[in-house]
Amino acid sequence: MDFDDSVVLRLRLSGQRLEVVHASRWLDGDNRIVLALWWLEAAGEMTRADIAGALADSPADADARISYMLGQLATARTVVSALATPRCEGLSRLTAGWDGWPEALWRERIADHVRRCVVCAAPPHERIAPELLFAEHALVPVPEHLTDSVTAALRTAQQGKKPLRCRGTPAKRRFSIAVSVACAVLIVAIGVVHTTAPDQDSDSQERAAVAMATSRPSSSSVSRSAAGTSSPARASETARSSEKAETRASSMPSTASASPRTRPSTECGGALAPQWANWPMPNAKAGGLPHQASYTDQGNGTVRDNVTCLLWQRAPAPRRHTFTDAQAYCARLNLAGDGWRLPSRIEVMSLVDTTRSGPAIDTAAFPGTPAQFFWTSSPWAVTKTPLRAWIVNFYEGLTSNAVDQSGSYQVRCVRGDSGSGRPAYRTVSGQVTDPATGLTWQRATAPGTLTPHAADAYCTGLTLGGRAWRLPTVKELATLVDDGRVSPAIDRTAFPDTPGTGAYWSASVFAPEPSQRWFVSYNDGITSHRPLDGAHVRCVS
Description:
By secondary structure, the chain is an alpha+beta fold. 32% of the residues lie in helices and 12% in strands. It has helices spanning 3-11, 15-24, 29-42, 48-54, 59-84, 89-94, 104-116, 130-133, 144-158, 177-187, 202-215, 236-251, 323-332, 345-349, 452-461, 474-478; strands at residues 138-139, 192-193, 221-222, 294-297, 302-305, 311-313, 373-379, 388-393, 399-404, 414-415, 426-428, 431-434, 439-442, 503-509, 517-521, 527-529. The strands form five sheets. The protein has a five-stranded mixed sheet, with no helix packed on it. The protein has a three-stranded antiparallel sheet with strand order 7-8-9. A three-stranded antiparallel sheet has the order 11-12-13, with no helix packed on it. Helix 4 (48-54) packs across helix 5 and helix 5 (59-84) packs across helix 7. The longest helix has 26 residues, at 59-84. The protein is globular.
């Protein structure tokens, strides 16, 4: 009997409680441990400081990991819900080759479909926060024999005799005793037992929990368009052959090693490290903002961004790569010269056109771009195994740090000069100017949280420093993200009141669903879109 089957029988779970239990199977081993610890905290058995100590993390890193886990759990719930209901035709085709075993790659594939599908995106019910779903359940003490066996296994692992394996947990991780107990709690039905009568209506319980919870596109200019593009559907062997031909010049030994390899100058760049915007952020033509995106096809397989001066590989790599392989692919790429590298999070973000979708990019400049996730060179700041890195989804432009570096995603390389510095923010009279992007920001966060329309009105009416203020685009907000930090992922010296969690509204409308707005969460720096009751506001000029 599988784990979730035993939970269903022991807890007599149904409805959304069952959905959460099944969703936990889609989490990786590390996040299942974090879920168990968080559940103990929700039950009052642990504090956040205890969790940080158990994970050998700082409080800020522990906050980020819990937030990340809850985000993954929410995504997994949408996947479980979509799979449980009669599947739409598109989802049936997508999962035709799936073996039915929950894993990260299929979670992201199915979740991506759900976001784009009007049938699957409509939840069959109002989702209740997991802590409310189990509010009337009591924690069960872990059986003594289970606690002893898990603890003994942990101590054995720490002595190097035998690695501890709590299903899905990386074998080489060495957790504290508290984590071993949490792992045992997770095995025992996620640490809870049903205390209500067997015949009680679970739907009415969930409705009560809901009541309790509620009481609380234009194209940018291209100087020269390509005549055509090859089909994105390529056979694996053809892709590998094409890639070998593309990189052959850089991988073969040179007979004249004294001669430098060709690297045309980009004739632009900056002193900042690639993780920062060394340039104004390109904007879509719609809206009349400055620095409208513009590209020049160089006619040699490369495209120059006329705003950022970055030189891009026009066509993506012939096949997908892992994070490490993607870096190696770009490093050996010889396309109109060498000097290529995997682009950073903000560099890839500069190509996103949020007024488009499927793909969210200028298709005249970059024809054949798949509406899929692309690697960036930016690792996630939380350095716990399995290591993760940032990716950008060119279906709609979403950025995420939710993937293991062992995953396989699309690649587009970049060439551009850069340095190693950080932004030299200038702070005067409640305003922060970024010389690299040319943007001036309101230093303080607006009071309270606002709706999108109230956020627009607030910025339009702001009179700080006699400037004309507006709500920033999501790409402009993303230039403030320091992806080397978490909780908050921003320079706290320049922006001292930025909360460790919470979203900031942008003026950017979500193209597939115009009623939704993009926002940036400075908990870790992700960009996302979904209906929110309110969010923070920081205006730009």
